[in-house]
Amino acid sequence: MTPGLREFVLDGGVGADVGRANESAGDLTPAVRAALAQAFTLAADRGAAGTRRRTWLDTSDWRLHRAGLALQHERGRGAGRLLLTGGDGALLAEQPVTGRQPRWPRLAAALPGGPVTDRVLPLASPRALLPVAAAVSTVTVTRLLDAEGKTVARLIADAATVTGAAPGGRAAAAGEPAVTLPARLAVAEVRGYPGQARTAARLLHGVPGVAPAAQTMLQQALRALGRRPGDDGGGADARITAGMPAATAVAAVLLRLLEVCEQNLDGVLRDIDTEFLHDFRVAVRRTRSAVKLLGDVLPEGLAARYGAEFKWLGDATTPMRDLDVHLLGFDETARHLVAAKAQDLEPFRAFLLRRRARERRRLTAALRSPRFAAVTHDWRKALLEIRDEPAAAARGGPTAAELAVTTTARAYRKVTRRGGAITAESPPESLHDLRKRCKELRYLLEFFAPLHDPAAYRDVVGDLKKLQDVLGAFQDGQVQREEIRALADAMLAEHAAPAATLLAMGEVAARLAAGQAAARAAFGTRFARFAGPEGRRHMSVLLRTPHAGAPG
Amino acid sequence: MRVYATYNIKGGVGKTTAAVNLAHLCAAGGHRTLLWDLDPQGAASFLFRVKPRVKGGGKALIRGRRALDDAIKGTDFDNLDLLPADFSYRTMDLLLAAAGGKPAGRIAALLRPLAADYDAAFLDCPPSISLVSENVLHAADVLLVPLIPTTLSLRTLDQLTEFVAGLDGRRPRVIAFFSMVDRRKRLHREITENLSAERPGVAGTVIPALSLVERMSVERAPVTAFAPRSRAARAYRALWSELPPPPAQPER
After folding, report:
1. A75 - beta bridge partners?
2. Are A448 and A400 within 8 A, CB to CB?
3. In CATH, what class is A5-225?
């Protein structure tokens, strides 16, 4: 058992005797041997030497990295292991992988039980774990013995070659070069002998060409692959400046959104996890809002044409996402049943899954269609022409900052006007409409975020988010209830609905109705706060104060 | 966690060699294993090249979890840790009695929190009838009793079985096995052949008297590690396969 590791990197460029640690099994460089021999007898542990394959895993939006964690699937001799380490490389948890080796990507929820899963699942769910890097190492182990001949520490020499992000550490794909990392030496502590591990580390410190590892192997591997942790590109921030022509800025925003769509496309097509489709849809919705609200600054006809195309695309994704929402919340919903039993709902789950498979086929067909290929291709071409047009500034027209102020102010006025008209008697559609206006305002704020003062931006978005939460809870309840009714009809038509299931679905619908009523009751207060003096002040500060650090 | 204890009132019957080899086999099978050398003579500690010393002695150990955690040493083998002996264990009875609470359940209570870290614990007990042995009987799931095939040692097994049957609460499963068996001796042959068949709770495997087992003290390693293909190692493997295995790790 290895409670702690101290890691070093061998610098191949310093000193002729500092060769690669894996030249022959267990053979360390003479300098390393001589240093350690001051305190220990060295013995090669040939049984522990061998090839080790590592695959580092994270969600596509780097949730583990953001939480300061690194997850590794390691395979050497025998069964593999999942290792969870902190940002400093310290081991936090490990669990054996028994039975069939998992294939990646794999949903976090599908990991076998164990201490690693217990820590990873709440962070990663509902996402899948994807390989972010893979490496094959030649590992040799040297036992450091005390005067009794007892192993008091181990020295692990690891010469790794990064093989790309292929699952399971397989060889790099064709054309992808394998990169050799600097050899690493790790002093592994034997339980109960911390002092000896410290001594070994101290002795290594003094060896020329051996330096404490400043980066974990994952960091080295990602660097070798040219990947930056966190480079999922999920954000909507485009590089815009206050003084740039509005059309240039809008084109930049739209190009960034197109990029997000494309980054998520593969995950949607392969159905890696539900969040790829979610992020894809959000980017499509943002695109539609941008085209609608900012399209006036684009060349004539462009907004109308692509507004329709992106509506088609958004509509194509809706049925599958709606089913995903039901399925993602399914267990939680089943837990809250009072009169019915959780298993009563199982036929409903089976039905949802069948429907989802059908909708997935339809969505895949749409995303593989010539129409989709043409939309994305032509849209990019059109946007690039606008963004890169050299004469844009000379043509006059508003700047990005001016456009931000006028459109945001307009959207805010619309929200306050429509929201103010809502009474207890207003139909659900009025809240739905307000929710859409709120989303538009939120998107505008986000598009122009680089131009706003960060503090003022935080205040306004904070106010708006609270209002959106209530509207979202109301509208989601409404939509889900209507869907449950429609799905119940469809199940009946297909003779797939036992009475107990319909009753359980009725209970679910009742609970949604109760949640909706609570959201409706909370609306008045939330809206008053958003549209009241404090909220108005926040908005006026935002519109009057340009971002001090915003470029030009 | 499954707790195995090797125990006999008599000394020199192969308790320590059994505990050391079985613990090694258990760990080699991928189970996280702890061997607690309760014998103040520290033979098991010696065999693993660990100094028979515990900071604060038996007193600190019996007082709480912290000292226990700090005292555990990794061995040369994967998955196998050792809680070494200490000379102060010779007065362990007094320490247990002074610890308060239920003195006979103290070792069981100390082992309980270790269940998160280990799948199996082996207790190598000193030869005696004392509060220590009573503690061990309470803590163990499997009581392994090495027997030299003599009439007297059979009497001892009867006494022990009777004693265990009279224990309150949870009782260990008693599994005896013949140890240090010399096939050249007629009495050994007769007793091992007749008794394994006749008596329940006696393992079919016998551990032969072999010089290789004695060599463990020279090699300072389990025979299953330094001579895995030897007859001695095969015998311990056969014995291990007769014992109830540690619980499988929880799957979800």
Report:
1. A53
2. yes
3. mainly beta
ipTM of the complex: 0.85
Choose among A306, A286, A307: nearest CA to A234.
Answer: A286
Residues of A in contact with B220 (CB under 8 A): 148-149
CA A67 – CA A54 distance, rounded (Å): 21
Cβ–Cβ below 8 Å for A150 and B50: yes
Q: Where are the domains of chain A?
A: 5-225, 246-544
CA distance A274 to A330: 14
**In the predicted model, what is the mean pLDDT of residues A51-76?**
91
Model pTM greater than 0.90? no
Written as six digits, the tokens of A220 are 């080295």
Instruction: Establish, for the pair of chains A and B, how many residue pairs have beta carbons separated by less than 8 Å.
Output: 48
Q: How many domains does chain B have?
A: 1
Interchain contact B218–A (C-beta under 8 A): no
Does A79 have pLDDT greater than 90?
A: no
pLDDT per position as a tens digit, A453-508: 999 999 999 999 999 999 999 998 999 999 999 999 999 998 888 999 999 999 99
The pLDDT, as a whole number, for residue A130 is: 92
Residue among B31, B49, B216, B217 with most chain A CBs within 10 A, to mutate:
B49
Q: Is the dihedral of CA B96, B100, B104, B107 positive or negative?
A: negative
Q: What is the 3-state secondary structure (H, E, C) of B109-157?
A: HHHHHHHHCCCEEEEECCCCCCHHHHHHHHHCCEEEEEECCCHHHHHHH
Average pLDDT, chain A: 87
**pLDDT for position A231:** 63
* b/e burial code for range A526-537 (CB count within 10 A of at least 16 → b): bbeebbeeebee
Predicted pLDDT of residue B94: 86
What is d(CA B175, CA A137) in angstroms, rounded to the nearest whole number? Answer: 46
Q: Which residues of chain B are within 8 Å of residue A114 when distances are taken between CB atoms? A: 249-250, 252
Percent of chain B past pLDDT 70, that is, above it, reads 97
User: Which CATH number characterizes residue B143's domain?
Assistant: 3.40.50.300
What is the least distance, in Å, from the CA of A347 to any CA of chain B?
23
Query: Phi and psi dihedrals of A479, rounded to 5?
Result: -60, -45
DSSP-derived 3-state class of residue B205: strand
Between strands B33-37 and A69-75, the pairing is unpaired
Q: Do A149 and B49 touch (CB under 8 A)?
A: yes
Whether the CB of A267 is below 8 Å from some CB of chain B: the reply is no
β-partners of residue A139 are A50, A158
Which tops the pLDDT comparison, A230 or A328?
Answer: A328
State which CATH number among 1.10.238.10, 1.40.20.10, 1.10.10.10, 1.10.287.130 fits the domain covering A246-544.
1.40.20.10
A158-180 confidence digits (pLDDT tens): 888 888 764 433 444 555 567 88
- At A272, the pLDDT band (50, 70, 90 cuts) reads very high
- Residue ranges making up the domain that contains B220: 2-242
**Looking at the domain assignment, is residue B89 inside a domain?**
yes
Closest of A448, A449, A59 to residue A232, by C-alpha? A59
The answer on pLDDT for B65 being more than 70 is no
Bridging pattern class, strands B142-147 and A128-145? unpaired
Q: What is the pLDDT of residue A439?
A: 94
Q: Report if residue B249 sits inside a domain.
A: no
Cβ contact (<8 Å) for B49 and A190?
no
Residues A164 and A176 sit within 8 Å (Cβ to Cβ): yes
Q: Is the pLDDT of residue A350 over 90?
A: yes
CB contact under 8 A, A112 and B78: no
Whether B248 and chain A come into contact, CB under 8 Å, resolves to no
Does residue B185 belong to any structural domain of this protein?
yes
pLDDT score recorded for residue A171: 44
Distances (CA, A) of A328 to A323, A373, A421, B135: 9, 30, 35, 51
Cα–Cα distance measured from residue B248 to residue A167, given in angstroms and rounded to the nearest whole number: 29
